[in-house]
Write a structure and sequence with these properties.
Radius of gyration: 25 Å
Low-confidence stretches: none
Number of helices: 15
Number of domains: 2
Order of helices and strands: EEHEHHEHEHEHEHHEEEHEHHHHHEH
Helix content: 40-55%
Number of strands: 12
CATH topology of the largest domain: Rossmann fold
Mean pLDDT: 93
Shape: elongated
Amino acid sequence: MARIQPISAAQSLEFDALLDVRSPAEFAEDHIPGAINVPVLDDAQRAEVGTLYTRVSPFEARKVGAALIARNIAAHIEQHFMDKPKSWRPLVYCWRGGQRSGAMAHILGQIGWSVGQLQGGYKAYRQYVRSELQTLPARFGFRVLCGPTGSGKSRLLHALAGNGAQVLDLEGLANHRGSLLGGLPGSPQPSQKCFETQLWDALRKLDPQHPVFVEAESRKIGVLSLPDSLLHGMRQADCIHLDAGVEARATLLLEDYDHFLSEPALLFEKLDQLMPLHGRQTLEHWRQLAESREWRLLVTELLQMHYDPAYKKSTYSNFVRFGQAAGLQLPGLDSGGLNEAARRLIQAHAPVMSAS
């Protein structure tokens, strides 16, 4: 007798395995963290069945779909599940928790495994994540690393994580450095849905009893938007103002953005977006600096003429406690100096334990 349990989205992480039976394209857009893709219909098959459903009849589509699904499930059992013990507990889900996950769950249950089927499927899970993101950020005490472009915020965040602090690496999750030039070459950003899933997964693993260090960000990181609840929590939080000299910042940017040095055409394409702010004459001057490979001078001028004024304006207007921010002098941005700064911050922001 098949043993299939209806499971809510809140219970979805309690199983030994998460089986996403949607097509590879659906899985690539977003999926439950830790899930593996075992599609009962691949992308082409799903399109074929969908076309039959709309152009011929639902009955003809179900016949073709059933044959394809049966063959695909048989292949998955042989390739992925033959070594699983009887105690193995998988959770199966599709888009709405209907026929695709139902077929896989039924056969696995008939074999003798205790199977969960996600009620409402990925759609219900997505609604759960969005609901969680409305309330999760309010549970944490954020410490926001502020500082002008190139001041080492990302590097310090990584040093904090390496020294045991809780961090929320938004730019890491978004796969983007957060500025006009922040796209990573050959590495696209995730979908908005996938970004929100990763953000929820990161937040749910944090301890509300300890501070969470995070970089100051605008509403968007590249093409991705931060949830309003998280943005509000960050903008109301205590700030730490990183202070590094222009020379050190220029050196850091030349290291982190060295891909532009070999592809100046890509740099020009990005800088052209600054035309309305700085005018054609300034943009032409910057282009000449790049063509002459005067990279340090170009970076210094970009910092002083564009990034620093924009940083001051946005930070003072958006982060309400920035005026009371604790300063953190960074004489250098090498790993030794950043690790020392991270340890000082961790000590300064350690939670106060009440006497029992």
